[in-house]
Each structure stands twice: as C-alpha cells, then as structure tokens.
Specification:
Blueprint (H helix, E strand, L loop, with lengths): L7 E2 L2 H4 L3 E2 L6 E3 L2 E3 L1 E9 L8 E5 L4 E5 L3 H4 L7 E9 L7 E9 L6 H23 L2
Parallel strand pairs: 1-5, 7-9
Antiparallel strand pairs: 2-3, 3-4, 5-6, 5-8, 6-7, 8-9
Organism: Arabidopsis arenosa
GO cellular component, one term: nuclear speck
Protein name: RecQ-mediated genome instability protein 2
C-alpha cells in the first residue's frame, strides 16, 4: 500500500467512472490516482450477503463493504451513518466493493451527512477537477 496516495473523498456514483491502471495497486478517476476511497453513508441491509457484508448508501449509489478483522465482529446495524475508508475493487455487473481499512460510526453527529456532500464538492473543486479535466 502506497500511503503517499491519499484516500480520495468521493461519492459512490463516482466509483462507476474509476478505471483500472497498469499498476494493480491503484485505480484512476480521470487524472486522480488512488488506492483507497473515503466514503460516508447509511448502512442498508444486503440480501444474500454473507455475515461480513454490508452495503453503504450515500444517496448517489451503493457500495458493498467487505469487512474483516475487528470490523467484522463489531455490531453494525442498518440505519447507522458511517465513514468508511478502504481499497476499491472494480467488479463487472455487480455493485462496487470496498475492502474496509477503517470504519467509524458517525450517527451521533446529526449534521455529518449534509457536511459530507460539501466536503466532497470542496475537495473535487480544489484538487480533483483540474486533474480530471486534464485527462478528459
């Protein structure tokens, strides 16, 4: 894992445009190279998923969360608003998969969801938009 590549703040819908790179350790969104995605949203039930699978809904799309270690034994419940950082795995014909590295329950902060959209927009305009336009 190359920790010089920051976790990119994004919405679930943006993951659909991410493309694999020649390096198997990174993914590209336009000119933005990343290994880890930073998402926030509400946990929703998954039908047919295993015990270690949850789905995150941020209002723009869905992402399956692959849990392991300490995250798999914690009691995550539908309706929780969470922050998730993890490695994005491109899958064809299925919802995207994020292998979770960090997951935090933010449900006690009622304004977190509204602020998240503003944070993503701000990061996009300041850092990502110029790179994405350059490669479009």
């Amino acid at each position: 894992m190359d920790y010089s590549l920051a976790a990119v703040k994004m919405l679930c819908s943006q993951l659909r445009d991410a493309k694999p790179t020649p390096s198997q350790n990174a993914t590209a969104l336009g000119g933005v190279l990343f290994q880890r995605a930073w998402l926030q949203g509400v946990l929703v039930p998954i039908s047919g998923g295993g015990d270690n699978s949850l789905v995150l809904d941020d209002g723009t799309g869905l992402v399956e969360l692959g849990l392991s270690g300490d995250f798999a034994i914690r009691q995550w419940k539908s309706g929780m608003y969470v922050m998730v950082v993890g490695v994005y795995h491109i899958r064809t014909g299925d919802i995207p998969l994020l292998k979770v590295h960090k997951m935090v329950d933010l449900s006690v902060s009622p304004d977190r969801e509204a602020m998240w959209y503003l944070e993503v927009m701000d990061a996009y305009r300041l850092f990502y938009e110029p790179l994405i336009q350059e490669f479009s």
